[in-house]
Write a structure and sequence with these properties.
single chain; 189 residues; mainly alpha; Rossmann fold; two-stranded antiparallel ribbon; 5 strands; 10% strand; elongated
């Protein structure tokens, strides 16, 4: 995927998990654009020293000196992960309408499902077997009729929903911790 300089800058900024969303936005605002935040980082770094940990600032400078802003998206792609910034075509419009939209989404699998009709199902981890069975069947029927199901990946209702939707492939699972360690590992294979 070809990314603009602004998109690559957002992907690079988001690669620093130690930074809060607000800190990332302040960096962009200080430079006026995401691309300028990368290009002028050494100029604005001093003004950021009061609010960003010195070790993180040092890591960011080092990353830039090694071409990190150019490589961040490519490295994700090499792992089958598609980074989607809030500036990228295809970023869900409804997410841009919320008060604090995410700067990034990280996708793996059928990215085209983002543009489909979706229905979200979430629920309790501890649920009666009869309810789990109904959730699985509900997800199966929805997906057989062209609806993409969106859910988490926790045990309980969400696991049942995934099991019901998986045969159709019309499932989007939200991983709150990203693609790192997952608690319900059996559903991520």
């Amino acid at each position: 995927m070809n990314y603009s300089r602004d998109e690559r800058a957002i992907i690079w900024l988001d690669s620093f998990a130690e930074l809060t969303r607000e800190q990332k936005l302040r960096i962009i605002k200080a430079a006026k654009t995401p691309a300028a935040a990368v290009e002028r980082f050494s100029d604005i770094a001093d003004s950021l020293a009061r609010e960003i940990d010195p070790q993180t600032l040092a890591e960011m400078k080092k990353s830039l000196s090694l071409g990190g802003a150019e490589r961040a998206a490519d490295e994700l792609g090499e792992n089958g992960i598609v980074p989607l910034t809030c500036m990228t075509d295809g970023f869900p419009e409804n997410l841009l309408q919320i008060p604090d939209p995410p700067l990034m989404l990280y996708l793996k699998g059928n990215v085209g499902l983002l543009g489909s009709l979706k229905f979200t199902i979430v629920g309790s981890r501890r649920t009666l077997p009869a309810i789990l069975s109904r959730a699985e069947e509900f997800a199966r029927v929805l997906t057989q009729n062209g609806v993409t199901v969106v859910t988490g990946i926790a045990e309980g209702i969400e696991s049942s929903v995934i099991t019901g939707a998986l045969p159709s492939g019309r499932i989007i699972s939200i991983l709150p911790g990203g693609f790192g360690p997952v608690t319900n590992r059996s559903l991520t294979r």
